[in-house]
Amino acid sequence: MNSTLSRLFNEPQFSLDSRVKNRILLEEFNYLVRLHKEKCPEYFRVIRGLNLHPPYNDLEAIPFLPISLFKKHELKSIGENEIFKVLVSSGTTNSKLSKIYIDEETAQLQRLALSRILRTVLGEKRLPLLIIDSENTVRNYKEFNAQSAGIRGMMPFSNSQIFCLNPDMSLNTDVLRGFLSEYGERKFMIFGFTFMVWQHFYKEAQNLGLSLNLEKGVLLHSGGWKKLVDESVSNREFRLELNRMFNLTNIHNFYGMVEQTGSIFLEDDSGYFCTSNFSDVIVRDPNTWSPTLPGQVGVLEVMSVLPRSYPGHAILTEDLARELPEAENVSGWKGRKFEILGRVPRAELRGCSDVHAEKFSNSTLEITGIS
Question: pTM for this structure?
């Protein structure tokens, strides 16, 4: 790990002045462009076709790839013998999936980055972990989809793990009561994908009339908002209902994807996603692809210095977003803040929790990709 990258890991997350952070990130992104241009033939053809030449003078000029390319091509900057594991995105039955090729260096950077980010809300010690999912989800060791990767990513921060859903996704009340009896009086973690927390934990506990005190819990959740939006459940209502039902107040949504595992965007207390030391975002105007002004809606580009084994350092997503104006930053966490406003029209539904939600919906899913 070089000295500039080491600084991003050693400094407390969300603490770097934007000018200092941007200088470090720009140096790393210029390095990654050169690396992947040399090691990945497909990336080299993209850069050559766009007639782009590093070094670049600002983050907005770093070439980005649309996320759909990872579904259509095997993009990797390593040889077959260097592949440590393969991450597979979630998708619908007829959709193409992204395959992300990870070597040991990239895997180690992902683990370290996730650790530094989550330490901000979990603290230094490992905690008991209540997983709102079935243990069957993580039993396939050959390939990791987004759902199993998310669960496995949380396990190193725990000293014990309990899955509280049965294989049919019903709530195992005996397991749940046993966990709370043993760990409920001290700080513990809860992890689940957003729809599953709502559908299989909150709603079932409500239907069963369970009285649970999760006051000491820290809930980390992600993905699966489409079905909740269909049910008119906002992020604010989600938080209020979990507080009312379980006395749970320490709730942090996070935004991330298989294509950039490790560099998640964590929600602060004001409800906005924040960029860590390792990452940044650019909201782009879909007509010109120029950066929008803060407060304006555009297509979200996510940037991460972690991908060494594949050219996933700058990815144009299929999500609409708005960057928070600097004057609205009241949480104290430094770095750009943003909110997700939905999918680009006609973009493919790809979130693992959204895919799971489709099993409980009678609606017809349109899976037309964007170019």
Answer: 0.83
